[in-house]
């Protein structure tokens, strides 16, 4: 699936998008996998209260399933308007 | 009818407002709002707006559809820009048209409250003092609770 990062999450991880092969069942499982990879992921995902997640472009929770998802995106709280 | 536009280029607020709901003689009330890049610290040079192409349009359409479901609206318009904007530039506008003003005003406020914290845009300020992402505020989140 494609994993996308926006705003400071993108800057901290150092890329806007990557393709990831994963068996993770939920968003939280995917985060655990990413954090185990490298320090920059550990840093980006250190405080989940500062993050939001969208699965297939719909806002959701960290315990949401990602089975069959095409796209998971991580970003800080939004500041539109 | 809902119209959502997400673009980098400037838009003509006057022309959009004039064309909005034109000819709809059944709609007696039009409310328009436009958001301007504010010079936050006497030194804001640029506001950079990042967004999530694809999700942005969907989120705005969903918010507009929710407004249509809650109020009696004949027309809804949302325009939101992204990219690099200077102080004084128009970032976005919403317009609502209804038979009566109460619906048009309330729906416009609802749209503003929701697109502030439920549409995937992120603002980064570039000032003389440096560069930083704008934090979402508790007020923004609290504003949603009144609806």
Molecular structure report:
The complex is a heterodimer of chains A (81) and B (147). With 81 residues, chain A is an alpha+beta fold. Chain A has one domain: Beta-grasp domain (Ubiquitin-like (UB roll), Roll), CATH 3.10.20. Chain A has a five-stranded mixed beta sheet. The longest helix of chain A has 11 residues. The N and C termini of chain A lie far apart (30 Å). Chain B has a single domain, classed as Aldehyde Oxidoreductase, domain 3, CATH 3.90.1170. Chain B is 33% helix and 37% strand. A four-stranded mixed beta sheet of chain B has the order 1-4-6-2, covered by helices on one side. In chain B, strands 5-3-7-8 form a four-stranded antiparallel beta sheet, with no helix packed on it. In chain B, α2 runs antiparallel to α3 and α3 crosses α4. The longest helix of chain B has 17 residues. The interface between A and B is medium-sized, with 16 and 27 residues. Chain A: One of its GO terms (molecular function) is nucleotide binding. Chain A: InterPro entries: Beta-grasp_dom_sf (IPR012675), MOCS2A (IPR044672), Mopterin_synth/thiamin_S_b (IPR016155), ThiS/MoaD-like (IPR003749). Chain A: Belongs to the MoaD family.
Low-pLDDT regions of chain A: none
Radius of gyration of chain B: 16 Å
* Sheet/helix structural class of chain A: alpha+beta
Please write the CATH class name of chain A. Alpha Beta
Mean pLDDT of chain B: 94
CATH superfamily of chain A: Beta-grasp domain
Instruction: Give the neighbour order of strands across the main sheet of chain A.
Output: 2-1-5-3-4
How widely separated are the two ends of chain A?
30 Å
Quaternary state reads heterodimer
Q: Per CATH, which architecture of chain B?
A: Alpha-Beta Complex
- Give me the CATH superfamily of chain B: Molybdopterin biosynthesis MoaE subunit
* Number of structural units classed as domains of chain B: 1
Label the structural class of chain B: alpha+beta
User: Could you report the average pLDDT of chain A, rounded to the nearest whole number?
Assistant: 97
- Give the biggest beta sheet of chain B: 4 strands, mixed
Percent in strands of chain B:
35-45%
């Amino acid at each position: 699936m494609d994993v996308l990062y926006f705003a400071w999450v993108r800057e901290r991880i150092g890329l806007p998008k990557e393709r990831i092969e994963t068996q993770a069942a939920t968003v939280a499982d995917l985060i655990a996998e990413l954090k185990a990879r490298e320090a920059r992921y550990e840093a980006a995902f250190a405080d989940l209260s500062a993050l939001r997640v969208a699965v297939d472009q719909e806002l959701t929770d960290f315990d949401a399933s990602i089975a069959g998802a095409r796209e998971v995106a991580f970003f800080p709280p939004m500041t539109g308007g | 009818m809902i119209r959502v536009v997400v673009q980098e280029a400037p838009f003509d607020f006057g022309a959009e407002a004039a064309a909005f709901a034109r000819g709809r003689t059944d709609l007696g009330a039009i409310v328009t709002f436009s958001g301007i890049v504010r010079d936050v610290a006497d030194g804001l040079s640029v506001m950079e707006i990042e967004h999530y192409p694809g999700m942005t349009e969907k989120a705005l359409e969903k918010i507009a559809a929710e407004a249509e479901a809650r109020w009696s609206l004949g027309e809804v318009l949302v325009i939101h820009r992204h990219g690099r904007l200077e102080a004084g530039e128009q970032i976005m506008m919403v317009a609502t048209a209804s038979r009566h003003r109460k619906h048009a005003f309330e729906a416009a406020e609802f749209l503003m409250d929701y697109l502030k914290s439920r549409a995937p845009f992120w603002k980064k300020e570039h000032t003389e003092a440096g560069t930083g992402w704008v934090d979402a505020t508790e007020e923004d989140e609290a504003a949603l609770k009144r609806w």
